[in-house]
Each structure stands twice: as structure tokens, then as C-alpha cells.
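May I ask for an example protein's residues together with how it folds?

___
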Amino acid sequence: MNDIPTPQNRPAPRRRMRTVIAIAAAAVLVAGAITAGALFRASDRPASSADAETTSAVETRLQSLVDAGYPAALASVTSPDGEVENAVAGEGDIETGQAPPPDAEVRIASNTKMFVATIVLQLVDEGLVDLDAPIDTYLPGLIRGAGIDGAGITVHQLLQQTSGLPEYADQIAADAFGAREKYISPRDMLDIALTRPASFAPGERWEYSNTNYLVLGLLIEAVTDRAIAQQIDERIVTPLGLEHTYFPAPGELPLRGEHPTGYHADVPGELRDISAMDTSFAWSAGAMVSTPAELNTFMRALLNGELLSGAGLETMKTTVPAGDELWPEAEYGLGLQRYPLSCGGFAWGHGGDIPGTQTRNAVAPDGTAVTIAVTALPWAVVSPDDEEVLLEQYRIVVEALDETLCDQ
């Protein structure tokens, strides 16, 4: 589902999970110096003592995520008529025990892809981009490598993750703590990706690669002659009145607004603050910040046709199979994923993982939007060497999303 992560054709299971968490980096990160006071082990967390009679169903689900080892969980539920319910559980700061602020800013990682895809399709609506044109039309001679030729890869294939471009993020972010203060340019990241051979011939199959959306960010800037952050702000954020949704500026490490602490670990369960981070390594594939409620606002506006023409939205919702261990019947459109719900019907959304935050989010057939965020990745709280345990740690967040969408 995400990835950023989120589910991402189907390689062998272990490679598959690495693809799912690609932008979050490698399973074992290089350690840095920490103090004893900064350590936290998931097994040390006390069980929930919440009174079931005074706790909402959403709060109960969030508490179950905390009991499973996540430091904190946040959710926002937006009803079809626009009513918003925000809920939190756990500790926004594990040193002070302070509760997480409701509807706080979080890094939304691969949900950025929905924003990027929306802008590309707006440019299609405006006649500035042709989905069937090769990327060489807009970035001439740039996309070249072993088995890679930009003259044979279309914009549509980039949007739908069927281009065959190899992944870059597993190399860039393999040391999350080491990379947190480093700036890397989009062109440098692309150069790293293009040292690898193509994963498959364009259009042959589906496979999630953050490189596709790195290239789309470059496309947007080439066509508009403006920075992608400005395009996101002018075309989406400002029209929708989103006050806490933004694309961080180069070198901008701290989150701008109120937020829970995001945690990561060199040793599973030994959590360290990674809230302040240069997310240039994620760029147009996953750098954005939002709040659960504002992400719901964006998804509802997108699916209600407020941001694209009717034809553009239908094109965005044209899918190919993209199921995985987390959501076997999932499908991928153009920067938008479709998930079957346990109660029937399908939800549309994306999801994202980045060190310090995991988000799962979608809109149900009746217009209910739900976003759930937890303040660590699964493999920061359980061992990445036990794939079944790791998958289960992912599944519980997906299940909480499904249950909340079905419970409205």
C-alpha cells in the first residue's frame, strides 16, 4: 500500500517487503550515539487502561496499535457530510509521557505521490502534457541506462508504476539517522537510480518504484518552469485552504507546526527521535507534510472532482493489479490506489512510510475519509528479520483503517 510505502508485480516475499519499505530505507540502520533516557522498548509499554465504555471505537483501535508497540497513533475520520472526528492514543513524547496533539503535523511520505499525480493530470487537462508521450518529450536525453530509454517510457507508465525504472531510495536512505541532515538533489538521486539496469521492459508489468515519481517531479518543474513546492501550494494547498500541508523547503529539517515525536531505531524497540529530518531524499516521491484531517480533505476533494476534470479523474482511477501481502486485491491507478473493503466495495487512497511515521488512508464509497498515522515504522518496533511478525505489524494498521472505514 504505500509506500511510501505502501504496497508495491510481486517479487519473492523478502524482496517484496523490502520494496514495501523502500523509501524508509534498509532494515538495519547504522547506530549513532544516544543517551539512556532516549531509549524505549516496545515490550516496556504498559497495557491500555482505557475505559471501554467511554472510549470511541476509533480510540480503541488506536490504543490497540499503541499496545502493539507503536509510540503513538493519530486518526481523523471525516464523514460524508464533512464532520470531523480526531482521536489520539499513546505518547507523543516517550520521555515526558505527554499525549500526542490531535490532528498534528506528520510526514505523509508516499501520499506525496497523489499530489504529484494530480498536478501532472492537471497539466494534461491544460494541454501541456500528453500521457502517451515519451518522457523524452519533456526531459530529452535524461532517462538513459542499461535497458532504460526515455524515448520508450511514457508519462502514463511513470504515473502507474509500470515503467520498469529501478528503485533509488533503498540506497539513498539506507542510513536514516546518517541521512537526516544531508541534502541530496533530485538529479543526483536519479543518477543513482540509473546506475542500475531496468527492472523490466516498459509496460510489461507493475512494480512500485519511487524513481517514477522522482522523474515526474522533474517533469512538472520542466513543463511549468516553477519549483514543485510552489506548484503543490498554488494548485492544491491554497485552493483547498490547507494550513498545515506543505512541501518542505531545501534544508528545512523541523516540522513547522505542532507534532508528535517521530521515532526510528537502529535496534528494534530502542527508539530515537527522528522528527527533524531533511527529506530531500524523498522529494517528489515522499517529502510532504500534512495532518490526518487535511489529508482527508485533499483526498475527498480529489475524488469529488474538485481538482481534475471528469475525464482526468477517470483516467487516474484506471487501475492495474497491484496486490500484495497486506492487501491482496489492491490495484494501482495513476498515483492512486484502490483497496477492497471487508464490508464490500472499494476505497481509494495511497499511504506512506518514512522513518518516524507510517500513514494509512483512504476514502470509502460513501465519501467517508480516514487517515491513521503511527509514529514509527513497523521495523523500528519489531525485528525486520522475522518477516511474518513484520507483516503483522503492518497489517494491524491496515486493518484499523479497514475497520474504521467500514464502521461509519
